[in-house]
Design a protein that fits this description.
This protein has about 325 residues and is an alpha+beta fold. Helices cover about 50% and strands about 25% of the residues. Strand 4 and strand 5 form a beta hairpin. The model has no long low-confidence stretch (mean pLDDT about 80).
């Protein structure tokens, strides 16, 4: 079960209201201080959050662990300072910010409607309460905009950082580290009940390309090779750069081409790019679920590597 909590406090940090109300699983009660039923670590985090509110009037992107239903739950905290205290919004991390803000706005609209009814009996007193709710709505809208901007920025930064951590910057192929993570975590689910072909790739005479045409041409050849493979995979596999001119291709049995035909088309396309270098490759295959086992994966890599070097040796003999 997910939880969203809204607290208001006075200037002394005594809780004046809690939403949802009358919920014994929430460690906050009206007329109690914020530290009434939370542990020391959580209290310190809350006090740091409140100090930020005092200085900047708005506080974002703090997290706190609370015990809900005898289970530790991590919450994001957002808050803003008012003349008479603070409003704090806690959203469980699996929730989107928009949904809880929209829920809060609906609650305030209901309060406004109730105040309108009460104002018939005591207009002046209820009008003041109505204006306070109106100001609260305005503050919530401003906080919502701030939260949306922060949320969008964080999401974009996280996407960029993840791409940088798993991609080879030269070729845009996945890197060696992501190869092992992908085989262990994603491959069994993405290709359940499929056979996976593992190709070890190495270029013949790549050093000669760098020596005779320059490293820029060598780099361009690596990038062009990755582009060829990605197009040939047709969404039924991935390519990883291990380093230098060494690559691994994972090809699903769902691909329409047989393994040899698949590699032949890549070799033919590569031959049109370079009159010096060529491709040496070796292949093994196994069920997707087996590859998640590191020992099995390394055994497959060793077999494919041996087959690739046999291919390389044959190329050298043919060149003599």
């Amino acid at each position: 079960m997910t939880h969203n909590i809204i607290l208001t406090t006075d200037k002394e940090h005594i809780i004046t209201s809690v939403y949802p109300e009358q919920n014994s699983t929430i460690p906050f009660q009206t007329d109690k201080p914020l530290n009434h039923d939370i542990d020391k670590e959580s209290y310190d985090i809350m006090m740091d959050f409140l100090r930020t509110l005092e200085e900047e009037f708005v506080a974002l992107d703090k997290t706190i662990d609370l015990t809900i239903d005898e289970k530790s739950t991590t919450f994001n905290m957002y808050g803003f300072k008012k003349d008479d205290g603070t409003t704090i919004i806690l959203t469980s991390k699996e929730n989107e910010c928009d949904r809880i803000i929209e829920e809060l706005m609906r609650i305030n609209n209901n309060l406004i409607n109730q105040i309108r009814k009460l104002s018939k009996n005591d207009h002046s007193e209820d009008q003041e309460a109505y204006e306070k709710i109106g100001r609260l709505n305005s503050e919530l809208l401003n906080s919502k905009r701030v939260i949306e901007k922060q949320h969008a920025k964080l999401k974009r930064y996280n996407e960029i950082l993840r791409e940088m951590s798993i991609k080879d910057p030269l070729t845009d192929a996945y890197n060696r580290r992501h190869f092992y993570d992908y085989c262990r975590e994603s491959l069994p689910d993405d290709h359940e009940n499929e056979t996976i072909r593992l190709f070890m790739i190495d270029f013949n005479d790549f050093k000669k390309v760098n020596d005779t045409k320059g490293h820029d041409k060598g780099d361009a050849l690596l990038r062009d090779f990755v582009d060829i493979v990605k197009k040939s995979l047709q969404g039924q596999g991935e390519i990883f750069r291990l380093g230098g001119d060494e690559f691994i291709i994972l090809l699903s049995s769902a691909h329409p081409d047989e393994p040899k035909a698949f590699m032949r088309s890549i070799e033919n396309a590569f031959a049109r790019l370079s009159d010096i270098a060529s491709i040496a490759w070796g292949m093994t295959e196994a069920d997707a679920g087996e590859i998640a086992d590191l020992e099995k994966l390394e055994d497959m890599m060793s077999q494919a590597d041996s087959a690739m070097y046999e291919h390389k040796a044959k190329h050298k003999e043919d060149d003599r």
